[in-house]
Write a structure and sequence with these properties.
- The protein is α+β, with helices and mostly antiparallel strands.
- Helices cover 15% and strands 42% of the residues.
- The chain has helices at residues 51-59, 108-112, 126-136, 168-179, 260-265, 269-273, and strands spanning 7-15, 20-23, 29-35, 40-47, 64-72, 78-94, 97-105, 115-122, 142-146, 161-167, 181-185, 189-194, 211-213, 224-226, 229-235, 245-247, 255-256, 279-290, 296-303.
- The strands form three sheets. Strands 1, 2, 3, 4, 5, 6, 7, 13, 14, 15, 16, 17, 18 and 19 form a 14-stranded mixed sheet that branches.
- Strand 11 and strand 12 (189-194) form a beta hairpin.
- Helix 3 runs antiparallel to helix 4.
- The longest helix is centred in the middle third of the chain and has 12 residues, at 168-179.
- The chain is flat.
- The two termini are 43 Å apart.
Length: 318
């Protein structure tokens, strides 16, 4: 096997005390990282580890944590995962190789699984409830809110008090159903993202957020548009994260992911339903790469707060 020129993948594994267990920088490493509503998870495949290291990862008594950093042709480093907990390790022989796969998740999952009892919170605004949840779970990291209209997270509902019991995950799911937002976790952070409709956009900071202007030359495939939806496959890009605002105004071309039957049977569907708004909120991200194959891309799904305006499909882009 030959390394893919310019694609650096630096994988290190430490135990819970920070002692190094493995530096796999000189081996073939493939990775698949998914950043989703809830918590992030990853699969990392390593080729031809020695037997002692495999035995340590599979049967060792210590917890292990993986950090994976990438760099393309000596450019700025992108830390794809940072101290993800390795939940399972599987090793198999595929002649002539021994392939070891690490299954991981970020530390936010541990916070989400914490059991809490929060009783009688007075004036229970969303922010106050979430702060109480996190305090009860002994989480001291950063909490951020994005695109909530008119400071909705501080709205005081008519009920005088509120209580929450169960896991942080279950409590957040109840709040998400009530308030219509999504949550994303880092190792030491929570991001809560509201997806406004068109009428709410002027009441949010969506248009003021820093935007990532997508460029045609960085796309690995034609971007796909659907009603209020965008799907892209770009070169591996650490700036594309959940909550990132993607601007498609500089893209030269795109297709549609709307199914063929809809386009056949719904007159003027593409013009009425797809075009119009050029800023999309990223909600699902997948980073895939390898230092031995051509895999080196980011796949993202994003949503816009409108189904579109009447516009010729030839005018979707510049």
């Amino acid at each position: 096997m030959n390394k893919k020129f310019g694609q650096e993948v630096i994988l290190t594994i430490e135990d819970k005390n920070g002692r190094g267990v493995l530096d796999a920088s000189n081996l073939r490493v493939d990775f698949d990282v998914r950043e989703l509503d809830g918590f992030s998870r990853a699969s990392i495949t390593i080729y031809n580890l020695n037997e002692d290291t495999i035995a340590n990862l599979i049967g060792g008594n210590n917890d292990h944590y993986a950090t994976l950093t990438t760099r393309l042709h000596g450019s700025q480093e992108f830390k794809v995962i940072d101290t993800f907990f390795i939940s399972n390790t599987i090793s198999e022989k595929r002649i002539p190789n021994v392939i070891t796969t690490l299954y991981c998740y970020n530390k936010g999952k541990e916070v989400l699984e914490t059991q809490v009892n929060v009783d009688k919170i007075s004036e229970p605004t969303l922010e106050k409830l979430i702060t109480s949840l996190m305090r009860s779970a002994k989480f001291g990291g950063e909490i951020a809110y994005q695109c909530f209209p008119n400071d909705q997270q501080n709205y005081k509902p008519p009920r005088p008090t509120a209580s929450m019991h169960g896991s942080v995950w279950d409590c957040l799911e109840d709040l998400k159903m009530e308030h219509g937002f999504k949550s994303f976790t880092g190792n030491d952070s929570f991001l809560f993202v509201y997806t406004p409709d068109l009428a709410q956009v002027p009441l949010t900071n969506l248009d003021d957020l820093e935007k990532l202007v997508l460029q045609t030359e960085t796309m690995r495939a034609n971007p796909k548009l659907a009603p209020a939806q965008l799907q892209i496959t770009s070169n591996l890009d650490g700036n594309i994260r959940p909550g990132a605002v993607l601007d498609i105004s500089e893209l030269i071309t795109a297709g549609t992911s709307t199914d063929e039957q809809t386009l056949q049977l719904s007159p003027d569907f593409a013009r009425r339903s797809i075009a119009g708004y050029n800023r999309y909120q990223t909600l699902v991200v997948q980073h895939k790469g390898s230092n031995y194959t051509s895999e080196w891309h980011t796949i993202a799904s994003a949503t816009a707060p409108t189904n579109g305006l009447a516009m010729s499909t030839s005018q979707w882009f510049r």
